[in-house]
Amino acid sequence: MSKKHKNAPIKRQDSSYDVTQDLKDRALAAAAEGITISDAKIPNQPIIYVNQGFERLTGYLAEEVIGLNCRFLQGDETDAETIQHISEALERDQTCSVEILNHRKDGTPFWNRLSITPVKNESGITTHFIGIQSDITKRKNTEEALEKTNSRLEEANQNMKNGLEAAARIQQSLLPRSTPDVAGYNFNWFFKPCDELAGDTLNIIPLNEKIVALYSLDVSGHGVPSALLSATLSHWLSPKPDQDTILETEAETTSRLPVQPEKIGKKLNRLFPMDLDHPQYFTLGYGLLDTATDELTYLSAGHPPAIQLGINGDLRLLETGGPPVGILQGSSFKQCTTLMKPGDRIFILHGWID
Amino acid sequence: MDRLCKSVKESAGLPLDDAIKEIIKAHDKWTEGNNPADDISIIAFEKTK
Q1: In whole angstroms, how large is the CA radius of gyration of chain A?
Q2: How much is the pTM?
Q3: Which one, A11, A207, B36, B39, has least CB within 10 Å?
């Protein structure tokens, strides 16, 4: 014996499901949506029935609209293409569903999701059209607001993108435009940011006929804050007359003399302390190459050690002491020196995954 | 640092520009061409005589 589920439908044989004409009439009248019936056999297809839902939706009473064509709900702002679409569907006796801007009796516009379906007789001839109207104004307004918000976001995003591109170009312009032309030495560099804006920067700056300064620095983090500090540091590490970080003026002679790397480390550590407002520090590799004595005086403040490669393939790491700049006030930075022999190369590398 | 030192060492004898290119190529190989998580840079110089 099969066991029926307690919720299984039971087919009833009595007349409980008989739907009377009276029930249909009451159901039509009570529907929340607006319902209209137009006569397809009469020119201009006049309305012959509207329910209470239609009256609530449009503000018109049945007796005011019976005999009219539904198009009286349209206004100047109603989309012409949508109107055309409805007309064509009616001409072809086809169902159509549109979202159309209509107007209430008091003139206020509302968005109407309108579906029109032809009603056919036994011979397949369309005798009537039934129209169902739903007020979708709230949804349309929400969509419109969302569209405007999206558009504003897109605009803001584009502005931000343009700003980042402009900032990236400025950053690029801070990199060396050429390499120093110094007898007995060749210089080169390579730089690749991992994002639009870089927290790293580097430079090769001839300070006088003999001395070339080289630095590579990496600001902690990424994005705009790191890029801003990186650009600021480029300015501080420039040989411009208004800067005395890498060149200082000797009081007696007023000549500009290179500042020693450890002093630069200390100064920047004092000027750019990491704190709650500026939660950033940076590593710095800074060298002064005396091309007359072939001596490189260098500092690696938290920066990876530079690599010195001899002509015979001998390799040496140029390590010095000192934490990243800004991390700890009062830190000391120790500079070291190395001699360059003919064929020697030095590589100051940063950011390489190893 | 070991792989980096190795690629620097292997670049010995090449002109400086080519040495940099070789180091970059070696790096691309071991990162399998993925974008690095950090900016990468090299300053290189040599005493020619």
Answers
A1: 41
A2: 0.72
A3: A11
Q: Which chain A residues are Cβ-neighbours of B40 within 8 angstroms?
A: 190-192, 194, 200, 349-352
Which of A189, A200, A315 is nearest residue B5 as measured by Cβ atoms?
Answer: A315
* Residue B12 forms contact with A (CB below 8 Å): yes
Taking the C-alpha atoms of residue A251 and residue B22, their distance in angstroms, rounded to an integer, is 47
A85: its two tokens: 């679409």
Closest residue, chain B, to A201 (C-alpha)? B41
CA of A307: how far to CAs of A113, A292, A303, A338, B25, in Å? 73, 21, 12, 11, 18
Q: Which of residues 167-196 of A touch B (CB under 8 A)?
A: 184-195
Q: Is A353 on the interface with B (CB under 8 A)?
A: yes
Whether residue A332 contacts residue A286, with contact meaning beta carbons closer than 8 Å, is answered with: no
- Residue for token pair 């020693």: A260
Q: How far apart are CA A295 and CA A136, in angstroms?
A: 80
Q: Is B37 on the interface with A (CB under 8 A)?
A: yes
Q: Model confidence over B1-49: pLDDT tens digits?
A: 778 888 888 888 899 999 999 888 887 777 776 666 677 889 999 999 6
Helix A223-236 and helix A261-271: axis angle, to 10°?
A: 130
DSSP 8-class letter at A325: B
Buried b (16+ CB within 10 A) or exposed e, A175-186: ebeebbebeebb
| Closest Cα in chain A to B3 | A354
CA dihedral for A354, B31, A301, A250, sign (positive or negative): positive
| B32 near A CB under 8 A | no
Q: Which residue of B has its CA nearest to A218?
A: B39
Q: Is residue A80 a contact partner of residue A71, using CB atoms and an 8 Å limit?
A: no
Residue range A309-331, pLDDT digits in tens: 998 889 999 887 789 999 988 88
Local structure of A270: helix, strand or coil: helix
Q: Is the CB of B12 less than 8 angstroms away from the CB of A311? A: yes
Strand partners, A128: A39, A119
Structural tokens at position A259:
């500042």
DSSP string, B29-45: HHTTTPPPSS-EEEEEE
Instruction: Flag if A192 and B40 touch (Cβ within 8 Å).
Output: yes
Reported ipTM: 0.92
